[in-house]
Amino acid sequence: MTAKTSSSLPPERGRSNTEKKFDQIFAGATAAFAIAIGLLLAAIAIVVFIQALPAVQEFGLGFLVTSAWNPVEGRELYGALPMIYGTLVSSLIALIIAVPLGLGTAIFLSEDFIPLQIRTVLVFLVELLAAIPSVVYGLWGIFVLIPFLKVIGDWLHGNFGWIPLFRTSPVGPGMLPAGVILAIMVLPIITAISRDSLAALPPQLRQGSLGLGASRWGTIFRVLIPAAFSGIVGGTMLALGRAMGETMAATMIIGNSNQLNISILAPANTIASLLANQFAEAKGMQVSALMYAAFVLVVMTLVVNVLAQMIVNRVQAKYQ
């Protein structure tokens, strides 16, 4: 077998002026769309901040570290610490549960562990979870998840009540049920994007690793997952954004308590749930305080995404 020489390759066809023109139009259009999205995000943040400005001037940074929430006119006092804590902890619980499950499911569905026909059905079922309305998740959480988790919560409180996270006896709605329902809701996002990232890797990576004597699981954990790391982190960050901003399901089962309680078995609240519960009837300074809370949520999401990008860059630099 002889190697194909460059002289045997077909000559490259020159691009016509029409093709070049279409390329320029396409590049210009995509650049315009990207700039428009950036401007739209900036416009949203600016409008929210302008609406929040009276509360920012009145309460300053103390809004972030105080727990009072009193909308009575003349005695108005606002602090978002319980809602910030609830948003972060419920999202963290969701990621702790969803990331291992989602990544494991993605590996199972992207490698040939099972026949293709069964794999296709499982992929459809996982993606179907994303199509279920959040209010349905909330109802399911009220009638199924909360009674089930109350038994687990009683056991955790009875045996590990000396730990601050379990010091409160569960009453039903609370941080733990909200975190579990958020985990179920973000699971399809992590699974789908991680599976696509693993499936998009060139087959030469697998073949090369196996050819050098690596085991199947060694190839998965030492070659494939590092190569698809940016996609996996991207899916996880999208899921985190969904968990931090989820409103209906969290509002239905988190308990909507504005009192700060470190226990995950106690009722809590999130920023999104606070906005959903109070914005329709708010007026005056309360509207500004709610917009201040919304601006805090925007900043939290931005910070999380920046940190994720820094992690991705550091890992990519390690393997380059």
Oligomerization status of the protein chains: single chain
- Estimated helix fraction: over 70%
Q: Characterize the largest beta sheet: strand count, sense, and whether it forms a barrel.
A: 2 strands, antiparallel
Strand content: under 5%
Shape: globular
The SS-based structural class is mainly alpha
Number of DSSP E strands: 2
* Mean pLDDT metric: 86
User: What is the tally of helical segments?
Assistant: 11
| Helix/strand order | HEEHHHHHHHHHH
Spatial extent as radius of gyration: 25 Å
Q: Termini, distance in Å?
A: 34 Å
- Poorly predicted ranges: 1-7
Walk across the major sheet and give the strand order.
1-2
Give an overview of the whole structure.
- This protein is mainly alpha-helical and 320 residues long.
- The protein has helices spanning 17-59, 81-110, 116-128, 134-160, 175-199, 203-211, 216-227, 229-245, 248-253, 271-278, 285-319, and strands at residues 69-70, 77-78.
- A two-stranded antiparallel sheet has the order 1-2.
- Strand 1 (69-70) and strand 2 form a beta hairpin.
- Helix 8 (229-245) packs antiparallel against helix 11.
- The chain is globular.
- The model is unreliable at 1-7 (pLDDT under 50).
